[in-house]
Design a protein that fits this description.
This protein is an all-alpha fold and 364 residues long. The chain folds into two domains: 134 residues, Cytochrome Bc1 Complex, Chain D, domain 2, CATH 1.10.760; 126 residues, Cytochrome c-like domain (Cytochrome Bc1 Complex, Chain D, domain 2), CATH 1.10.760.10. The protein has a two-stranded antiparallel sheet with strand order 1-2. The longest helix is centred in the N-terminal third of the chain and has 15 residues.
């Protein structure tokens, strides 16, 4: 695939060689910056056209016919996302492992559960997750609604004994009754486990983080810097889009880790779900949206820096050894995938107070 050339490409090369070092005898900057040349504009437009064939703009919400998003469901789901009484010791909520103020992660290789035990896999971000082909690293949940049911009943995570006990806790908190009725007005008995998961899913379906790259895809060819454009070209030319494409820039397929060169892991991935040996070491390809903010990396969280993650993926998935300059370029592009956190939307709500029959923390 041809290299990104012209004035924009030259600017990227010069920046890669000299950015971060102040020139000793640099001339004074002009008072006004000249508009980009026709050649540079054409290069940007050509790369933008190439990118739109590989990626899509992030939608404003991730709605579906099966799981409609309403304001009442979102309000309930927001409360349940922060609700620690959904864990046995009342110490863990969805937000504990998927901290929305930290781009939906907790920054740990694996997360601490309700009793202090760590899970076996890294907790991925909930931002933009509803776009994915499935949920969890091994794809065992079809959507975010199904995913929301898992951690609550997982003995290593939130530790609740069964769905019936969860419903008992929710019904014992008077304020939740009204929230469930508003969210599911047609239900005869709205406070149930399926509806709790559906509400959390509704809240997560609006956890979207549009980024400068979305502006670029939508036609604003000036939305990315020269270095980011060079990085996009390197990303495409290196073959990264074989797995990281589409609206999520990943999250749309399963792939074997160590496709070209063996990757050291004892986790057999999707094989544990399908029981098919052909799925051994296959995992859902992670989305690269906000990737610079969501480390540590990979299914076990053992790779600390994004630089190392980029280099390792090139080596083990593509059979390529990237130069430091190429890694830096790709890193610059990945920075364009970071969108602002929707602070107002994720604001922690006041949770309903416990009732006289609400269980206390501890053994059930």
């Amino acid at each position: 695939m041809r290299r990104y050339i012209g004035l924009v490409g030259m600017a990227a090369i010069l920046c890669a060689a000299g950015c971060g070092r102040e020139a000793a005898k640099a001339p004074a900057a002009p008072a006004a910056t000249a508009p980009p040349s026709t050649a540079a504009q054409q290069d940007r437009t050509a790369l933008q056209s190439q990118a739109t064939a590989l990626f899509q703009v992030l939608p404003p919400e991730m709605d579906s016919e099966t799981h409609p998003v309403t304001a009442a469901r979102v309000a309930l789901g927001r409360a349940l996302y922060y609700e620690t009484r959904l864990s046995k010791n009342q110490s863990i909520s969805c937000n504990s492992c998927h901290d929305l103020a930290q781009y939906g992660v907790d920054g740990q290789p694996t997360s601490l559960g309700d009793t202090g035990e760590r899970g076996g896999r890294n907790s991925p971000t909930t931002y933009n997750a509803a776009l994915h082909i499935a949920q969890f690293w091994d794809g065992r949940a079809a959507d975010v609604e199904a995913q929301a049911k898992g951690p609550v009943l997982n003995p290593v995570e939130m530790g609740m004994p069964d769905a019936g006990y969860v419903v008992r806790v929710l019904k014992s908190i008077p304020g939740y009754t009204d929230l469930f009725k508003a969210a599911f007005p047609e239900a005869r008995d709205p406070v149930n486990y399926d509806n709790a998961a559906a509400a959390i899913g509704a809240f997560e379906r609006r956890l979207v983080t549009p980024s400068p790259f979305d502006k670029f895809l939508a036609g604003d060819v000036a939305a990315l810097s020269d270095v980011q454009l060079a990085g996009l070209n390197t990303f495409i030319a290196s073959g990264c889009t074989a797995c990281h494409s589409g609206v999520g820039i990943g999250g749309g397929m399963y792939q074997k880790i160590g496709l070209v060169k063996t990757f050291a892991t004892t986790d057999t991935g999707r094989e544990q779900v399908t029981k098919n040996p052909a799925d051994r070491f296959f995992f859902k390809v992670p989305s690269l949206r906000n990737i610079e903010k969501t480390g540590p990396y990979f299914h076990d969280g053992q790779v600390v820096t994004l630089n190392d993650a980029v280099s390792l993926m090139a080596e083990h998935q593509l059979g390529r050894t990237l130069t430091d300059a190429q890694v830096s370029e790709i890193m610059a592009f990945l920075g364009s995938l970071t969108g602002p956190i929707p602070a107002e939307y994720i604001a922690r709500p006041a949770l309903p107070e416990s009732g006289p029959d609400t269980p206390k923390p501890g053994p059930v």
